[in-house]
Structure formats: C-alpha cells, structure tokens
Write a structure and sequence with these properties.
Blueprint (H helix, E strand, L loop, with lengths): L6 E4 L1 H14 L4 H16 L10 H10 L9 E6 L2 E5 L5 H19 L1 E7 L7 H6 L6 E7 L21 E5 L7 E5 L6 H10 L8 E3 L4 E2 L8 E3 L5 H14 L26 E7 L6 H16 L15 H13 L1 E4 H14 L11
Parallel strand pairs: 3-4
Antiparallel strand pairs: 1-12, 2-3, 4-11, 5-6, 5-11, 6-7, 8-9, 8-10
C-alpha cells in the first residue's frame, strides 16, 4: 500500500472482528457485540459508509459516558397478534431493532402483516439492513426511523425540529436482485456529510444551506446550517409523517425531544424505529409475485434511455453490486478514518484494524 492511496482495503471479517473487540473492551457481552459489529461491517460492505465503522468512535464515547446501557433488558410491551412495541432499555440500537424485526417476521407469519415499533432505542445504522431481513422469509419489509439529531427545520423555518427520518423498503424478486430503496427524507443523510468530512471532500450544492439561505458546501462547517428536504416542502411533510409513525406512535422522542447524539454522549436518546413486514403468501403465491417483480425490473432496465445515459438503475442494484465486489476484493476504508481507528485501538488496548503503517 502506498501513502497516495486515499483508502485502505479491509476484509469484512477483519472489520467485524475489530468492531467486536472494541465493543467487548467496553463491557458489551460478546454475543451482543458480535450482532452490532456484524451489522456495522455489513453497512460498510454495501457502501453505507456513513453508518458503518465510522460510527465506532462515537459509540465508544457514548458507552464510556454512560449514554448506552451495556446490559439492557429488551422487552416487548403493548403487544397484539399483529403489532407490538419493543422497549430497548437504552441498549445499542442494532440490538433493539434486530429484535423488533425478528418479532415482526414471526407475527407476519401468523397475521400476514405485522407492525413493530421501538422506543428507548439508539442509532442503529442504515435502514436497508433491517428492511432487507424479511426477504429471507419470502416477505417484504418497510422501515421507518427518527434520526438521532435534528438537522432539518420545518419548511420556511430555521428551528431544527426534524431529522433526516429515513425510509427503507425491500421487495424481493425471483432471479433479479431485490428492489431496495433506502433514503433519507433530506437530500443527503447526515452520515454522508460526516463521511465527506472524513475524506476531506466538499459537499455538492443542494445538500445544505446556511442560516441566510446560502449554499453550504464545506462539511466541516455543517453545524452552521441545516440539511435540505427532498422535494422541498414535500420532503418536510414526509419527514414529519415518518417521525410521527416511528417516534410519536411508539412513545419515542420526536421534535424538541430528540437528543443530538453527535454532541451529547450522556443523555438517553429514546430513539424510535418501526418495521412493517408483509408475508407475500398472505396475498397469493410468492413465486408469482417475485416473477412479476422481475418482469417489471427488466422492463424498466430495458426501457429507452436519454442521450448519454449508459444504464437505468433500479433501487438497490448498485449496493447489490458493491456488496459482491467488496466481498471478494475487500471494503475500502478512508485512510484518515483508519488512522483514527488505529489511535482508538491503541487507547482500548486492542489490535489495530490494519497492521501495516499508514503514515
């Protein structure tokens, strides 16, 4: 490896094991640390680098400061046959949401459709990881979440009362990759802003504006402005509705009650998420549905393109290809982030992520 290379390539297993070691060093049980580490490494493997190992130093700060319960009693409350609320007892969000998704899958198997929300959860990484999980059971998933810091004002305002509030949907095909949509209700997720800052890159015009309404492109100055919603006022409305469903409905934080976990490592965030799982067999033969999805996917991919367009992509296709490529070739991690992780490893008395020197 040469110093001119802006990234360092790391195998999935090495990345997962490093994250697990870091979490175990701070007192998380081995099994819980493995669950969290696996999901974080998977985030990087699909290219969701704003939600993968880049978040580890922040998680460690919160654990050390007492902002995360290392031994939560995650429990189900307000349960009916097709719905439930999971109280995460302020545990790692990856653990809380994983339990919620597993419960929704089990309930959908009996009821056809199931909705499970969370409260007293925490940041859990990219939404698509959880929307995708029902695919293994001939089911589709819809996921909603309240972001962990408010970066979005109401349309026309300057008080940041809303977050990126993401939505994800995963719909299976037969032979084609699943259609997987994972989107913030802002033009860009704040994790992408953090990733730009780590790589020393500028943001495109249209991601953020300052408090005078002027474009803000320096990610290191992100605190001086706010994110823009997708589709102008429509994105603001969508962020509000998602927050009401994922947060308010389940008794989780929303609006002024949302804690900025980037700045506050101590306070309980009471993050809310929700997963809706639909069992395809409740609506007919899953194989028929999946072949119909394949046909539509191929019709769209094969449709006439504008001049200069090489390919029409379906939601999730690029991350699907990235997963396959990174699985065989390794996951690229920004060199600056690797150096930060090496310093963290030294502090935690664990082996570094990469053994070679990156100076």
């Amino acid at each position: 490896m040469t110093s001119s290379n802006p990234t360092v390539t790391v195998a999935y297993d090495a990345l997962r094991d490093f994250i697990q070691s870091a979490l175990v060093s701070q007192g998380l049980p081995v099994a819980d640390a493995l669950t969290v580490a696996s999901l974080m490494a998977e985030a990087d493997m699909q290219g969701s680098d704003g939600h993968g190992v880049i978040r580890l130093p922040q998680y460690i700060k919160r654990i050390r400061a007492g902002g995360i319960n290392k031994h939560p009693q995650i429990r189900v409350v307000n349960e009916r046959p097709g719905s439930a609320i999971v109280d995460g007892d302020n545990g790692m969000g990856h653990l809380v949401v994983s339990k919620a998704v597993d419960l929704a899958i089990e309930k959908a198997r009996h009821c056809g459709v199931a909705w499970v929300g969370t409260r007293m959860s925490n940041h859990a990484g990219p939404a698509s990881l959880y929307a995708r999980k029902p695919l293994q059971h001939d089911m589709l998933g819809l996921y909603f979440a309240v972001g962990n810091a408010n970066h979005l004002p109401p349309w026309g305002g300057t008080d940041m009362l809303l977050s990126t509030n993401p939505i994800a949907a995963a719909i299976p095909g037969a032979d084609e990759p699943p259609v997987v949509l994972d989107m913030a209700t802002t033009v860009a997720a704040y994790g992408k802003v953090k990733a730009k800052a780590k790589r020393g890159e500028q943001m495109p015009v249209g991601w953020m504006i300052d408090r005078q309404g002027q474009p803000l492109t320096d990610p290191t100055r992100a605190g001086e402005g706010f994110l823009l919603p997708i589709g102008d006022y429509k994105g603001y409305g969508l962020a509000l509705v998602v927050g009401l469903l994922a947060g308010t409905l389940g008794g989780a934080a929303m609006g002024k009650d949302v804690i900025d976990f980037n700045a506050d490592h101590v306070s309980t965030t009471n993050t809310g998420q929700a997963i809706l799982v639909i069992d395809l067999s409740a609506f007919g033969d899953p194989a028929v549905f999946k072949h119909a999805v394949d046909k539509l996917v191929r019709d769209i991919r094969g449709s006439e393109r504008l001049p200069g367009v090489d390919r029409i992509w379906l939601p999730g296709e690029q991350s699907h290809e990235r997963r396959a490529r990174y699985e065989s070739q390794g996951i690229p991690i920004a060199r600056g982030l690797v150096q930060e992780l090496d310093a963290l490893a030294k502090e935690l008395h664990i082996a570094p992520l990469v053994q070679e020197s990156h100076a």
